[in-house]
Every structure is written in structure tokens, then in C-alpha cells.
Amino acid sequence: YQPQAGAWLIQGVLNILGQPLGVGQGNNPTCQSARALSMWAYNDPDYLLQMVAWAVRDNEIVMHFEGQPVSSARSLGGVASEVTFDLDPVSLVVVPHLDRIYGEMGRMCIGREGDPHRWVNPEFHGWSAGRGFAINVDVATGNLDDLEGFIRHFYASYHPYYNGNIPVIHHQPAGIAVTDSAARFVGRHAITILRVALSPRNEMRVYFFNPNNDSGQDWGQGITCSTRGNGEIRGEASLPVAEFTSRLYVFHYDTLELGDLTAIPEAEVARVMALGYGSWAASDD
Q: Which of helix, strand or coil describes residue 108?
């Protein structure tokens, strides 16, 4: 007996809602779309169900960018060069549409100064994404830009000791500069910040979702992402705050809940900067 396509799709919907952090991008190079599915499965499941219904019924998804409709059917193309079948049922149906919309939103930012993620991420991921935006790279030159200020903004936004002990209420999109085991720069990658909390060993750690199905990566300098043994919930990866921040290059935050930028210790900022300059940012030192 071979189940019909509808049965496979229902199975996939139940799986993604039951294991929202278990969504992986498979062989499709669309980390942004996989991240969005994970965020919606956790923050906004009814919206995710609507996405599935639109894709199946209409073969089209329409989102909005700053009030303007963006149609997957009318997009000029997305990030992925092709769509493979090594995907879960929901991703197989929805991701091609999301990828085209993501690409179209990027094209709508052509001519704007700065990184297009500033505008695309909140519009693409929805209401739960913070409107505050921080980046430590100058887009025009590719060089680092105010790394110290970037670090202080992250700590003042996310670290409970410096942000008034405010937890991460909704998962937030972020971008990391991935390095290999020799701390050499590999590329930039979309992840989700899930929470920042003390581990069972009373170590403050960032718990995050990595959609690439390989959360236990060795990023060099003794920085190895943990998936168990440090208080991780299933599907999470984690790192101590300083180590995580050293690989961070873009994040969103709530501008109304920013702590004291001057409260972060100089030694902590210096340590993060040293890790960054000693790895992916070495050429900008």
C-alpha cells in the first residue's frame, strides 16, 4: 500500500508542529526558509498552516513587503538554484515559494544603503522578529565596522545580566560567520536565537537553532557547538555567550528593551573581539 500525497503532507505537518526545531534544510541551500518554518511552527503555527494551504491549493504564496504584495508566482527567482526531494513534506511544498519571495524582497531593497536583511528579515519572518538591527560588517567594503559597539548591543539586548533579566520571548533571526575547525572563515549562515540562560553548570549560554542538520560543529579556537549536556532542549545547539558572539555578524533586537551598553565589562568585550579577530575577521585586523 502506497500512501497518497495528502497523507504524506498531513504526516509532515504533524511532524513539523510536533518537532518545530527538527526542521532541516536538507540538500536545499535555503537556510532562511528553513529557519522561517521553524520560527512559525513555534511562534505562529496557524500562519504556517495557512502557508501550506496556499501552496497546495493555489501553487502560490503571497506575502507583503512594506505594504506591497509579493507573489511567489510572479517572482523572478530565489536563492536556490534547484529544489531537491531531500526535504520533509512541508518544506518540499512550501520552501520553493518562500525562496522566491525571499529573493524578491531582496531585489526590492536594491539601492538601499546597508544590509538588506535589515528590512527583509522582519517582513519575511513576521511580527515576532525584532525591528532593531545590528551588523558588524560594512556592506560596501566588507570590512568590520564598530565591532565593540556591536558586541555591547548584543549583550545589552540578550544577556540577562545586562538587559534587565528579560528573556527571549520570541525566537529571533540572526546570522553567523561560520568557521571550520582551524577557525578559517567558511561562509555566512542563518540561525535562530532561541534563549539565553544559565546551564546546569551556571554558565551563561546562548541556545540556538541551526537549520543545516549539523548543530555540533567545531568552529576552531576550542569553540565546539554543544547539542547535549549543557541544558539543551532537543533540537537546540548552544555555546557560551562570548564564544557565540564572536561568530555573530548580524542580529535583530527590540529597541524598547535595550540595556545599558556601558555595563558590559571591558574584559568580556575584549575577549569576544580577540576571538573574532583571531578567526573569521582575521583579514580585517
A: coil
What's the CA gap between 177 and 135, in Å, rounded?
Answer: 12
Nearest residue to 104 via CA among 138, 134, 63, 142: 63
Q: Which of 167, 152, 196 is nearest to 257 (CA)?
A: 167
Whole-angstrom CA distances from 99 to 17, 45, 50, 70, 254 are 21, 19, 17, 12, 26
Say how far apart CA 9 and CA 281 lie, in whole Å. 43
The pTM (predicted TM-score) of the whole model is 0.91
Query: What are the pLDDT digits (tens) for 189-230?
Result: 889 999 999 999 999 999 999 887 666 789 999 999 998 999
Reported as a single tens digit per residue, the pLDDT across 220-249 is 999 999 989 999 998 889 999 999 999 999
| Helix-helix angle 89-107:117-125, to 10 degrees | 140
